[in-house]
Amino acid sequence: MHVRVIAFGILKEWLGPDEAEVELPAAATVGSLLEHLRSTLPERAPKDALSGIAVGVNAEYAHAAHVLHDGDEVGLLPPVSGGTARPANPLDEGSGGEGVSVALTREAIEADGIIASAKSGEDGAVVVFDGIVRNHSRGRRTLYLDYEAYEEMAVNQMRELGKKARERFGVRQVTLVHRLGRLEIGETSVLIVVASAHRSAAFEACRWLIDAVKQTVPIWKKETFADGAVWAPGEPFPGGLAVDVAEAPHEG
Fold first, then answer.
1. Superfamily for 90-231?
2. Which pLDDT belongs to residue 114?
3. DSSP collapsed to 3 states, the chain
4. Which pTM value belongs to this model?
5. Each residue's pLDDT tens digit, 37-74
């Protein structure tokens, strides 16, 4: 059988083309695919290139024992640094259902309009996280950032986080918007708006959402500095999402 493998972030620079077709025996697993990829790593890739990564199969997180099928799309996901087309209003697409609005956009995020549209007469508070591009990072002067995503999977994860936040904190409305592409200093990279009857729930939900986005939504950031460019080191995946190649089951 054949599966389509797509690498993201730093992995596509280490592994070569960001998309490739790989032939595997029938009933191969995610674990056996990773073993195959590890055995064929190019010289430029570090030996631990596949350590700590997560894997998406058809835009859903998958474990090492997940059985692959012919035609599956497999995403190789380094730890994320955290949001398909180019909608004029990013919330016109990617809606997550009642009480949840999510979107990816390559246009500037118009925060004021999005915040205003999230408000309702029943709300006592609207809490906003507006993540912006700063001009420095780890002691280096930043020129600009580039964001990329496994887009279908990112939208799915954002939607699920919005639903979980509403259930967990009892808030009325969650809006998540993330920029992709080239961002200049001072531009908004991610906007989270939480509307609720009570301020404490809105604050807690907003904080939980940005932390969860940074850990689980497959979006990666490349930082270009005055003296070079690097992919931002991501936060480790939460327990159960990372697939350890060393522990992946072998076929046989």
1. Molybdopterin biosynthesis MoaE subunit (3.90.1170.40)
2. 96
3. CEEEEEECCHHHHHHCCCEEEEECCCCCEHHHHHHHHHHCCCCCCCCCCCCCCEEEECCEEECCCCECCCCCEEEEECCCCCCCCCCCCHHHCCECCCCEEEEEECCCCCHHHHHHHHCCCCCCEEEEEEEECCCEECCEEEEEEEEEECHHHHHHHHHHHHHHHHHHHCCCEEEEEEECEEEECCCEEEEEEEEECCHHHHHHHHHHHHHHHHHHCCEEEEEEECCEEEECCCCCCCCCCECCHHHCCCCC
4. 0.85
5. 999 999 999 989 999 999 999 999 999 999 999 999 99
